[in-house]
Design brief:
Length: about 260
């Protein structure tokens, strides 16, 4: 008889602090894993805990937070130090999930960072196995705790210090947040002329897909890349909003500068 199958697995226990978009998706992903478990969710807003209360313990008081192996802070960057201070007496590892906040912002004796590199929207499902997770810890044993969680959720796990992570977060702002704002401007241009914005969807998807095969510098196209001054002038005349016109000019000029030596 194989007695090993009767020995229960030691499961990593987690308290999730926060109830926003990141916390929501982390909770869903962790609950799908067989090796980690959320034992409690903490949040200051009782209404925000409604999504969690049927499957796990919830609390709005730091004084009733239970003991766990890992305390995962998923709140706004400005609130991280205060939330971490509220569990300073806990013996478990404390990690925040921010890309821009250094590990030293945590006042806890055992501190770390668990940063999933993705843009999260509450009602849009994500495949966590494809999300890179960047880890930082001050002690090797604590890093190993983070690794257990990260590898149970994702196929891509990497070690990264606070300065590297901040640089990565900056790159992500350009790649995601700024590009999304440009999608908004494109949608507004279409809306003004009663053009269906969905006509641009295949182009947007193809541009993103190219990054899998080409470096961005090689994939660049458009009138600025071709030095097509006449087309760019027409576009500028069409843009009535000074801010939008300035964005067009700055970006076009930057593209031209990048490629001028090769023309």
């Amino acid at each position: 008889m194989n007695l090993l199958k009767f020995i229960p697995l030691v499961m990593l226990t987690i308290v999730l602090l926060g109830n926003g978009n990141v916390a929501h998706h982390l909770y869903q992903a962790i609950n799908s894993s067989a090796t980690v478990r959320v034992v409690q969710v903490y949040g200051r807003n009782e209404q925000g805990l409604k999504d969690f209360e049927y499957n796990t313990l919830v609390t709005t008081s730091a004084e009733t937070i239970v003991d766990a192996d890992l305390y995962l802070i998923a709140v706004n960057d400005d609130a991280i130090p205060e939330v971490a201070a509220g569990i300073r007496q806990k013996k478990g590892l404390v990690a925040h999930t921010s890309g821009a906040v250094p590990i030293t912002s945590l006042p806890n004796s055992r501190r770390a960072v668990f940063y999933p590199l993705q843009s999260f929207t509450r009602d849009i499902p994500v495949n966590f196995t494809t999300i890179p997770i960047c880890l930082e810890a001050e002690h090797e044993k604590d890093f190993q705790v983070l690794e257990v969680l990260a590898k149970s959720l994702s196929r891509t796990v990497c070690r990264m210090d606070s300065q590297q992570r901040l640089q990565l977060h900056l790159a992500a702002i350009f790649a995601n947040n700024f590009s999304n704002y440009l999608y908004y401007l494109a949608q507004e241009i279409c809306k003004e002329q009663e053009i269906n914005f969905e006509l641009l969807h295949p182009l947007i998807l193809e541009t993103a897909n190219k990054m899998r095969f080409l470096p961005p510098k090689k994939a660049q196209t458009g009138p600025a890349r071709r030095q097509d001054a006449a087309t760019m002038q027409k576009h500028l005349e069409m843009l009535k909003n000074p801010t939008h016109r300035n964005i067009y000019e700055v970006m076009s000029h930057s593209i031209q500068e990048l490629y001028e030596k090769k023309l």
